[in-house]
């Protein structure tokens, strides 16, 4: 591209009760097509969202994430250059069974101890289709320890994943 970019990222809030959702889905499909025409990656971060007392909230239930992936996977005339950016939720096996697209995992605002968070990420990284982590805020503002320790822990998950995939 003229900017030297290798793709684009879009946050897609799918609010089934909101009349603006249809236009948002159409615009997302056009953006995905525009990137694909240039052979650039479209990183799609879909959420099923609901309005609650004047603000929008993302539904992070497994069923909602599966539904968001199913909707987002159908956008555009090709999925050849589309990647998913998905939150780590319970039953990630079901989430990843809903798409054949390469996926990176969101860090979000996970609950639990750092050890529990890293174990959850590690388990998700072993699933087919999961390619890596996009967990900035969780590493930049760790609840415990230093940024260096948090980054090292996340990097060790990726190293372990890579070693497991290399044939002996």
Q: How far apart are the first and last residues' alpha carbons, in Å?
A: 39 Å
Number of strands: 6
Alpha carbon gyration radius? 17 Å
State the share of residues found in helices, binned by percent: 40-55%
Low-confidence blocks of residues: none
Count of discrete alpha- or pi-helical segments spanning 4 or more residues:
6
Question: What percentage of the residues does DSSP assign to strands (E)?
Answer: 15-25%
Average pLDDT taken over every residue: 89
The major sheet is characterized as: 6 strands, mixed
SSE class = alpha/beta
In sequence order, what are the helices and strands, one letter per element?
A: EHEEHEHEHEHH
What is the 3D form?
Answer: globular
Could you name the key traits of this structure?
168 residues; alpha/beta; 6 strands; globular
Notes on the protein architecture:
The chain has 168 residues and is α/β, with parallel strands linked by helices. Helix content is 43%, strand content 24%. It has helices at 20-37, 62-73, 92-97, 114-125, 136-140, 147-165; strands at residues 7-14, 41-52, 55-59, 82-87, 103-106, 130-134. Strands 1, 2, 3, 4, 5 and 6 form a six-stranded mixed beta sheet that branches. Strand 4, helix 3 (92-97) and strand 5 form a beta-alpha-beta unit. The mean pLDDT is 89.
């Amino acid at each position: 591209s003229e900017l030297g970019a290798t793709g684009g990222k879009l946050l897609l809030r799918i609010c089934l009760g909101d009349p603006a959702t249809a236009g948002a889905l159409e615009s997302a499909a056009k953006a995905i097509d525009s990137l694909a025409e240039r052979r650039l990656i479209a990183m799609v971060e879909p959420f099923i969202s609901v309005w609650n007392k004047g603000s929008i909230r993302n539904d992070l239930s497994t069923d909602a994430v599966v539904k968001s992936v199913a909707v987002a996977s159908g956008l555009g005339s090709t999925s050849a250059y589309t990647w998913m950016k998905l939150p780590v939720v319970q039953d990630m096996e079901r989430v990843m069974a809903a798409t054949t697209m390469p996926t990176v995992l969101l860090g979000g605002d996970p609950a639990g101890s750092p050890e529990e968070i890293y174990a959850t990420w590690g388990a998700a990284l072993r699933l087919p289709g999961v390619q890596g982590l996009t967990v900035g805020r969780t590493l930049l503002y760790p609840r415990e320890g230093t940024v260096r320790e948090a980054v090292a822990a996340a990097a060790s998950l990726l190293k372990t994943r890579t070693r497991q995939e290399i044939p002996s």
